[in-house]
Amino acid sequence: MVEETHQNQINIPKKRPLRSVGKVILYAIMALIGIVQIFPLIWLFDYSLLKSGDFFGNAILQIPNPPQWENYISAFTQGKVLPYFINSALVTFVSVVLTAVVSVLLAYAITRMKWRLSALVANIILIGMMIPIHATLLPNFIIFHKIDLLNSYWALILPYTAFNIPISMFIITGFMQTIPRSIEEAAVIDGSSIFGILRHIIFPLTKPAIATISVVNFINCWNEFIMAYTFITADKYKTLPFSIIQFTGQYSSNYGAQFAVMSLIAIPSIIIYLIFTDEINKGLMAGSIK
Amino acid sequence: MMKKWLVMFGVLILTLALVACSGDDSKDEAEGTKKSEETKTGEDTEKGTAEKVTLSFFTAQPDRTTGMGAIEQQIIDAYMDANPNVTIEVEALQDEPYKDKIKIYSSVNDLPDILHTWGQPSFIDPLLNNGLLHELNPEDFADLGFIEGSMSGFSKGDSVYGIPKNTDFLVLYYNKRLFEENGVELPKTQEDLVDVSKKLREKGISPIAINGMDGWTLPMWFEYVLQREAGSFDVMDDALHGNASFADDVVVAAATTMKEMVDAGIFADGYLTADYGTAANLFGQEGAAMYLMGSWEMSLSQNEDYPESFRQNVGVMNYPISDKSEVGDVLIYHGGGYSIAENSEHKEVAVDFLKFFFQPENWVKLVWQSGAATPAQSFDKYLTGEESSLQKEIIDIFNSVTSSSGTPVLDDATAEFKETIMNLHQELFTGGITPQEFSVKLAEAADKVKQAGE
After folding, report:
1. Which residue of B has its CA nearest to A197?
2. Is the peptide bond before B187 cis (omega within 30 degrees of 0)?
3. Residue A149: CB partners within 8 Å, gap ≥ 6?
4. What pLDDT score was predicted for residue A290?
5. For B129-145, how does the pLDDT look when each residue is reduced to its tens digit (9 = 90+)?
6. A152–B27: do the CB atoms touch at under 8 Å?
7. What chain A residue is nearest to B65 in terms of C-alpha separation?
8. Which residue of A has its CA nearest to B21?
9. Which of residues 193-232 of A touch B (CB under 8 A)?
């Protein structure tokens, strides 16, 4: 006891400055990383308040003088951000949910059920990861043209979902293999059905993986343009990236307004990301016993 | 429990199947569907019982509120007012996506009724060779004042498949104030241009702003340099379609001249990584004294994005000459225009619309007076006297033409050739290849084109 207090008296003054110096450095590094991460957003917002003629100067950030709030007004009027936003939200939401549901069911069938050809089916779906989007544009266009599906929400939801399923299934399969089977065995003994197991055990436990794929899929669908301009011509179904091209001239464009649109498009992405990262962390922290 | 889930899942699958098979009912009302409904108004609603016609119009001008896109839209709206039975649905994408989607439409033989085309082999040949474009009767457009030869790019043999809408020429814009304040004379010859650039650099001003990253301006500039070297624009055409070759000495000499000029620093630093907006803004913000660009930039002096001092001082001149050429040797061509699809169900209406579109008081007047571009038709009648000084200087250059290049060499062959020639320029200027290698590789690319044509 005596020795301990004696040690404390001697050591504490020595350790404290060390600790605080370490902390300062640590926080400085973390702040630096944080700034680097956030900088593009600041830059985006800064440029959305400039005149088009002020772009591409030597300064990285420019003080908008005066701020061109008209850029945002044009984004909503000429850029039709609002109706396109609703389309984007609808298409993205349905695609993300559909992808998540199908991927979880697929992953369960592949990791937990014993059936012939299961390995083959899994591999066929995984091959989908290697197919470039451009290779599918023309065949899909022809198919949609034949079944009269061009210019509809399905013309986007189906390909978006199809493209996101392989990688999503891959991630969820990997995650599901780490879940101990004993939990499911216990549930079966208690008389639970397969869908019961899915609902009460598999789904809650794979939440972190679902959150992960949903964030990635959200960003994929939210920013997708190639398929959108191939399958959609009607204003009624256009998604947000179309807002940006409303400001593209033959040679030069209204960059200020384009940046305003991009700032608006970025907001939901940021919000979704914040919500889901929380969910991912929670999922990782929580044990598997509930 | 399980039953409930099964039922729900089953419903989901069924809904999907149903929707996929039935298609979207509300689509028929959607704008942009390519179904032209032909409903005969049998009832005595109106006197004009013309059938309802829907035309699809596909353009490479997404911005419908400024420049050429706005004029296009204005004329379309006027036509629909004049012909209540016709609806014109506009689809617009910028250049690259536009070309992608044209390929897709072509492969299902379902081109939009009216489409924007470039009267250049690299774009229009695939469409012509597959018979996708409707042959137009030049008589329909005979008295609209089209410039001699402006339709040649849209022709195959004696048949015309498209109507040009612009005259484009490559000019040198300059900033009068920067020249005067630094005591520099305007360059008359290419040697002057090098001297001027050196003087400007000493004063800390970038000489010529150019969008080297986009790649298409450099081969156009090459055409000028080669003309100044050879004294004629024919070398290019002969090398691509005739008996000459890009491996000839004159081409090597021109490539060497180009390389020397670039090494002497006539282009602003970082010109190879500058895209269109970067180059335009460098010039507009008075960072560069000159700007090598097409005549379509004549609205620079009215662009509110740039400072007042720039707008009052921007001028334009012919590209500098050599002892073998004269001022009137201009790189001038008719790029964009409109064609009608062979698969269109309403060709007469589409032709009627094009006739309306190209009436001098529509396209010619509006496009010139807004400063958006120079039409491919004579526009003397529509000079208001109110033109900006920049527009007047553009007219002077236009009237100075004594020999013209026709379609720029990069667009005068296949899409592959275009890609090659753009890359070769960038390699030449970064020192990746010598002028000799440059001309040899160019000759190889041209041989490929010739073989494909045989």
Report:
1. B2
2. no
3. A143, A155, A158, B20, B23, B24
4. 42
5. 999 999 999 999 999 99
6. yes
7. A78
8. A147
9. 193-196, 198-199, 226, 229-230
Nearest to B285 by CA among A61, A59, A253, A257: A59
By the CB < 8 Å criterion, does A269 face chain B?
no
A 11-50 near B (Cβ less than 8 A): none
Give me the sign of the Cα torsion angle A107, A112, A117, A123.
positive
Question: Are the C-beta atoms of B438 and B428 separated by less than 8 Å?
Answer: yes
Separation of alpha carbons B279 and B270, rounded Å: 10
Residue A256 in tokens: 């200020």
Q: Which residues of A touch B213 (CB under 8 A)?
A: none
- Report the distance separating Cα B64 and Cα A53, nearest Å: 20
Query: Cβ neighbours of residue B326 under 8 Å, at least 6 residues apart?
Result: B402
The tokens describing B226, both together, are: 């080669």
What are the backbone angles phi and psi of residue A265, rounded to the nearest 5°? -65, -30
Q: Give the tokens for residue A75.
A: 């984004």
| Per-residue pLDDT tens digits for A1-55 | 444 445 445 545 555 666 788 899 999 999 999 999 999 999 999 999 998 888 8
Comparing CB atoms, the residue among A145, A230, A234 nearest residue B30 is A234
Q: Model pTM?
A: 0.83
B161-218: per-residue pLDDT in tens?
Answer: 999 999 999 999 999 999 999 999 999 999 999 999 999 999 999 999 999 999 999 9
